[in-house]
Design brief:
Blueprint lengths: L1 H19 L7 H8 L14 E3 L8 H5 L13 H4 L16 H6 L8 H10 L13 E3 L4 H6 L7 H16 L2 H6 L4 E5 L30 E4 L8 E3 L11 H12 L5 E7 L9 H10 L5 E5 L10 H8 L2 E6 L8 H8 L3 E4 L22 E2 L2 H5 L5 H6 L3 H14 L19 H20 L1
Parallel strand pairs: 1-2, 2-3, 3-4, 4-5, 6-7, 6-8, 8-9, 9-10
């Protein structure tokens, strides 16, 4: 009898000691259940817990509070406009647009991914305050916005200082020493190349952040990757941020029923400073296509290319949308065209096929057309002739595949706290990161 009473007392003491410890409200109850022998399969977050570093505000929030420092003198719009609505920008309200447009569309700047992603991370359902149970650790550093302040007119030490300070801050944390940063990840709204400056010449572009020895262990999700294994490409943010699966389905069905009078279209500037520019040839082909092509010249007055409504009206009236490289290999326009159910036409494999491996089909001919930029410049192929050879059945099949991709390339609006848009660009990024870090953890054993 005494032994039974003692056992009950010890068990009560055991649970009291567990309840007295500070723990995350997301997983404390589940942790206790596992201690009393319940099946761990009941924990839907097992293997998915993420810990967020509480960085000093100068690495993120201060950049939004002092958003005027992000605006250049040549910018058409203040960056302070775009930080609204958790990085989505101002909501689009237009008398020309239907209710579906007005409720889900925003003036989203392509460089706001860091803010959008951070806000989504705060609402991630498997957060933990206990880094020991975390499968991954998120670093909410706004690397691209921070660099934007110093890209023009500043020396390299100014461009490098914040990244250097961040690494020194991380190295002091106990979480870093677990895997020396290999379980850490961050997000950049700029291309990977912007953080890989190879020299200290002031004329060289970008920062050296990703060449810091400790930074090489971090995984970085970025709108355009390169040949580096620790950089992973994720979609540019578009202007469509639905808050439910039903809104996505409505949009997909709308894109299936569009009248598309143009065989192909192009929205972009000519890049006159680039020798042998693919864009120059594309514009020439478009202008001589006997009205089969619609051109939206981004050099023209009125800045129509910055207007999501005008872009969507162009793309959803086109069968094919041309996506040549610009300042870099990739373009936000690729994701705008997918959103409009317009079949993308690429001129370089690095514009999509070697980039968004977590998002786009491996068989690129299922959803796009490829035209060699070299053949185009040498006059070996004409865009119009290439595209008219695509049969109606092939065209319909590709368009359906493009429309099927829409949920995967958008960043849904979860600000209401309702998780209803499943497997969007954010969800796929998190799944990919967890899988990648799990593989790295296994290789360290």
């Amino acid at each position: 009898m005494f032994s039974i009473v003692l056992l009950i007392f010890l068990r009560h003491l055991f649970f009291f000691s567990i309840d007295a410890r500070p723990s995350s409200h997301h997983h404390s109850k589940k942790k206790i259940h596992s201690l009393v022998g319940e099946s761990s399969s009941q924990d839907s977050c097992l293997g998915r817990y993420i810990y967020i570093h509480d960085l000093p505000m100068r690495f993120n929030q201060d950049l939004l509070t002092n958003c005027q420092v992000l605006t250049r003198s040549i910018d058409k719009t203040s960056m302070c406009e775009y930080v609204q609505n958790s990085g989505f920008g101002p909501r689009i309200i237009s008398s020309e647009a239907s209710g579906l447009w007005n409720s889900n569309w925003f003036w989203t700047n392509q460089f706001m991914l860091e803010v959008i992603f951070h806000d989504r991370m705060k609402k991630y359902k498997c957060l933990t305050n206990d880094s020991l149970v975390a499968s991954a650790i998120f670093v909410p550093y706004y690397a691209g916005l921070d660099l934007r302040r110093y890209l023009w007119g500043f020396n390299t030490s100014m461009r490098d200082s914040s990244g250097f300070d961040l690494i020194n801050w991380l190295k002091q944390k106990p979480q870093w020493k677990t895997m020396w940063g290999k379980d850490h990840f961050l997000v950049s709204g700029r291309i990977a190349r912007d953080f890989r400056r190879k020299s200290d010449r002031k004329s060289d572009w970008g920062s050296n952040f990703r060449f810091l020895p400790e930074s090489k262990n971090l995984s970085m999700l970025t709108i355009e990757s390169g040949p580096w294994e620790n950089d992973i490409a994720v979609p540019y943010p578009t202007s469509f941020h639905p808050s439910s699966d039903d809104q996505v389905l409505q949009w997909q069905n709308l894109m299936r029923t569009q009248n598309r009078p143009y065989l192909f279209s192009f929205a972009g500037a000519s890049r006159t400073r680039q020798k042998n520019s693919t864009r120059k040839e594309i514009i020439r082909h478009c202008q001589s296509s006997n009205k089969l092509c619609k051109l939206l010249d981004c050099n023209s007055v009125g800045h129509e290319c910055d207007d999501p409504l005008k872009l969507m009206n162009l793309f959803r009236s086109s069968i094919f949308c041309l996506q040549p490289p610009g300042d870099s290999l990739t373009r936000r326009s690729t994701f705008d065209s997918i959103l409009a159910g317009c079949i993308p036409v690429f001129f370089h494999p690095g514009s999509a096929y070697t980039q968004y491996l977590w998002y786009l089909p491996k068989n690129y001919s299922n959803y796009s057309v490829f035209i060699s930029a070299t053949d185009l410049k040498l006059g070996k192929v004409r865009i119009e002739e290439k595209l008219v050879t695509v049969s109606k059945d092939e065209e319909a099949s590709m368009r359906e595949e493009v429309i099927r991709l829409i949920p995967r390339i958008i960043y849904g609006d979860r600000r209401s706290g309702v998780e209803s848009v499943e497997d969007d660009a954010f969800d796929l990024a998190i799944k990919g990161v967890l899988k990648r870090i799990d593989r790295l953890r296994g290789s360290d054993l």
